[in-house]
Amino acid sequence: MNLEERIQAFATLGDFLSQFSTNGIVKKESIPYNDLFFEGFKHQLKLAKEHNGWFTNENILFTLDNWSNALTNSNIKQFVQNYSFKEIDSKKVAIIMAGNIPLVGFHDFFCVLLSGHNVLVKQSSNDKHLLPYLAKYLEYAAPGFKDKITFTEGKLENFDAVIATGSDNTARYFEYYFKGKPSIIRKNRNSVAILTGKETEDQLSRLSNDIFRYYGLGCRNVSKIFLPKNYDFENFFKAMYNWHPIINESKYANNYDYNKAVYLMSEFDMLENGFLMIKEDASYASPIATVFYEHYESLESLKKKLDTDSEKIQCVVSDNLVDNTIVFGETQNPQLGDYADGVDTLSFLLKI
User: Fold this and answer.
1) 152, 141 contact by CB (below 8 A)
2) Looking at the chain, which residues constitute the CATH 3.40.605.10 domain(s)?
3) pLDDT tens profile 217-252
4) Is 0.85 surpassed by the pTM of this model?
5) CA distances from 290 to 139, 172, 218, 349 (A)
6) Which of 78, 132, 133, 203 could form a disulfide with 199 if both were Cys (CB 3.0 to 4.6 A apart)?
7) Where in the chain is the domain with CATH 3.40.309.10?
């Protein structure tokens, strides 16, 4: 397969995914192989939801919406235009995927196949239903992908490079186990927002999406906010209110009740509104239903802190207060070139 054929295969997959949207699941005419795959994928969505209580219909369909929008012929061509795709000696690249949000490892999978390599996938047990089915669709859309995609539940063997995503603890194991192999090893990261108190109601409302989407389980979710001294939380809490139905989700409510009890028994100071707790804390990783906050003396001192802690941070949300900022409400809408941890996966793959 040449690059153009690989691009077209993923664009065809994007067309297939366009039928599964937050606006509804609607079968379209003229989608290739739809009679074979449409009803089956609906069943996979059901299985994914039953297997993992965090994978609600809304969150799964939100993910599929994003990938459908990203996987167009023009988007993929724009994504690859700054790379040199020479004839490469195809290697087998292993991917160890996380399972915190639906299809969280798809971008790595996409990059490996797009670059011309073979992929060996070890999925998380929390997210094992969606990707194999989409991989089978790809093989129908482009038979050249057959024998280039392998899934395993056992020990990874006979591979040439690895992309592994996990916690700080598992990263140490990965670094030891995969030493001597070209690798990208990803650790814990969290996203932050910088507020000044001058944000509009719309900006704060959009920030609520950055906080609550996927229940806050993603590395692109805002888990900490930086605030000026004497920040008034009134407008912040008002803007969060559109997400209040989240407390009706049992898994979220259980975490909210548990963490609230821990804070109260420990006599920690915190603010809460019935579905979200705000706690002053120097850490970046906050528990579910909690957002940490920290005051800053000046934007200059905050910039230095963020630079120092850059390896702990995935995204910074603000009203253009720092370099490489993300506007409010867009953390969960990454583009193809928004690499996890800022590591250029495609460049890595084209050099191995």
Assistant:
1) no
2) 3-187
3) 999 999 999 999 999 999 999 999 999 999 999 999
4) yes
5) 42, 28, 14, 37
6) 203
7) 190-317
